Structures are given as structure tokens and as C-alpha cells.
Amino acid sequence: MTIYFVRHGETLWNRIGRFQGRADSPLTLRGIHLAIAYGNWLRAELEGIAGLEIHTSPLGRAVQTATILADCIGLPPERIQPEPRLAEADVGKLTGYTWPEVEQQFGIVKGQVGGWHFRPPDGESGSEQFARAESWLADAVRKPCIVVSHGGFSRFFRAAYLRLAPEDIEDLESHTHGRLFMLRTGAVNAVTIDQAEALDSPLLARE
């Protein structure tokens, strides 16, 4: 089985550096273009695969990205499966704050957030994210699929797939916009997606 792990497109809060967690903000124009570029690449990569499904975090920014991917690939809406276990980390009381505000108001520094044991006030620890990822992977259908999720959760999802020890997770590269990850045969490989591919999308050619 190959899993194509896609981070949602850029959002307004991504752009200004606010913690989103389980809250939401809409995709920016760049975010929409990125989602189209991901969809174009996936359409070419997965052409001819029967029964393809998209499993998505139920948060709005992920669902919007998943909907664009499905449109690019030519999948009907019923092939999009919302899955709560793929949601972003719950950052609790940090939601909506920027890094400087978090440091000033909570005394929390960057190295703490996203750690295995660290739990933001009223939020979720890294170990809890890892457990969610393990649970989903254990139930995953053994055929190629697309997962649309989030940057923070991506590290723990990839760690669960690779069966990493907690001390090795912090060495995983971050999931920046403009890349997706292919998880296949026990390995994880990053693919850089050219946003210019969005300009060739049939979505933009429709009248």
C-alpha cells in the first residue's frame, strides 16, 4: 500500500503565524493554487487506479484541500472520507496566538511544542498524536490512498508509519507547504510540487 500524505494548502493563519490547532482559517489564493498543483501531480501519478479514496482530517482547511484534489483527479465527492484521527494536534489555549504571544503569555518556547511529552494547556501531547496515527494505520485499507492532514500531525503520522522511538521523532523534517510525502514499503519519501503546475489545471480551463 502507498499512502500519499498531503498537508492542506496555506491558510490565512499560516501566513501570519498563528496556531490553528482545531480552529480554522480559509485557504489563501496560494493555498488554493497549491491544492490544485497537488491534485495535478496526483492525477498523473494515480491514473487508472480503481477505487481510490481520499481520507481527510475533518477540519475545514483539510476538507477544502481534499475537495480540490478530488476535483482535479476526477473523483466523486463520496470518495472523500472524513476521519477525526487525522485532525491536527489540539493546541488548547494556544489556539489563535502567534509564537511571540505564546512565549510572552505562557512562557512556552518553540522547542517544547510538538514534543512527545509536552501538552499545551487544555491540549494534546505528541504521544497522543502518535497513538491516533497508529490507530488509523492499523485500520487502513491495503490499497493506495491519499491522506489530507496537517503539518504538526504529519511528523507523528510519519513516525508511526516508520515505527520510530520517541527520541527519534524530533529528527524528522517538517512538512512545509509545497511538498507531499509518499509512504511505501516501510519508507517515507518527500516530493516537491511545483506550484506552477496549477496553471495547467483543467479546473482553471473550465468556462
Describe the structure.
The protein is α/β, with parallel strands linked by helices and 207 residues long. The chain has eight helices and six strands; from the N terminus they run βααβαβααβααββα. Helix 2 packs across helix 3 and helix 5 crosses helix 6. The longest helix is centred in the N-terminal third of the chain and has 17 residues, at 29-45. The model has no long low-confidence stretch (mean pLDDT 91).
Give the helices and strands, then pairings.
Elements: E1 2-7, H1 12-16, H2 29-45, E2 54-56, H3 60-73, E3 80-82, H4 99-106, H5 126-139, E4 145-149, H6 151-162, H7 166-169, E5 179-184, E6 187-192, H8 202-205
Parallel strand pairs: 1-4, 2-3, 2-4
Antiparallel strand pairs: 1-5, 5-6
Brief digest:
The chain is an alpha/beta fold and 207 residues long. It has one domain: Phosphoglycerate mutase-like (Rossmann fold), CATH 3.40.50.
Rg, rounded, reads: 17 Å
Give the overall average pLDDT: 91
Low-confidence stretches: none
What is the CA–CA distance across the termini?
37 Å
State the order of secondary-structure elements, H for helix, E for strand: EHHEHEHHEHHEEH
**CATH homologous superfamily identity:** Phosphoglycerate mutase-like
